[in-house]
Amino acid sequence: MPLPKEKERYTYTDYITWDDNERWELIYGVPYMMAPPSLPHQGISLELSRQLGNFLQNKPCKVFTAPIGVRLTADANDDTVLQPDIVVVCDYAKLDNKGVIGAPDMVVEILSPSTARVDRFEKFRIYESAGVREYWIVDPESRTAQVHILDNEKFNFIKTYRDNETVPVHVLDGCTISLPDTFPDSPFPDSLQTSSP
Hints:
Blueprint: H1 12-15, E1 24-27, E2 30-33, H2 39-56, E3 62-65, E4 69-71, E5 81-82, E6 86-89, E7 95-96, E8 99-101, E9 106-110, H3 116-130, E10 134-139, E11 144-151, E12 154-161, E13 166-168, E14 176-178, H4 179-182
């Protein structure tokens, strides 16, 4: 279904009527259509969620990957619905059939050229004000993970980790993420590599 007739501000009530086959985010009432992720983006997301999922097996927290709607309030008039690449939720009361209501414990956004500014600035402020406890900004180009931890309602920058490092997950005691495994030299197995004619 196309967007309803143009208006100044959309809400969650509008959002749930849009085509399920299209990915949208709603930021302060403004809808943004999301392009399909690149193959490297998908590979990074899969590997990060695999490592998190392995650690969380038989533990009370759960990891979810996009597309998953995150509503930072339960109000039908909420004008912000985000679709982070990866979220970790430890409070099951924040889950319903449509996604997450409230702040996830951890959010990971994987940058792409079309989303980098929004992820670094707008979403940063939204996640911070909503109370997300840990926010990672993963950059496939520089092969880095920038980690921020909530402290006194503000994100505290911890470190930018490089692709040869292991990163501790601060909100999951004992969990670490291997960036060498996260950023492979190629998204394709050797058997699928082809050279140009």
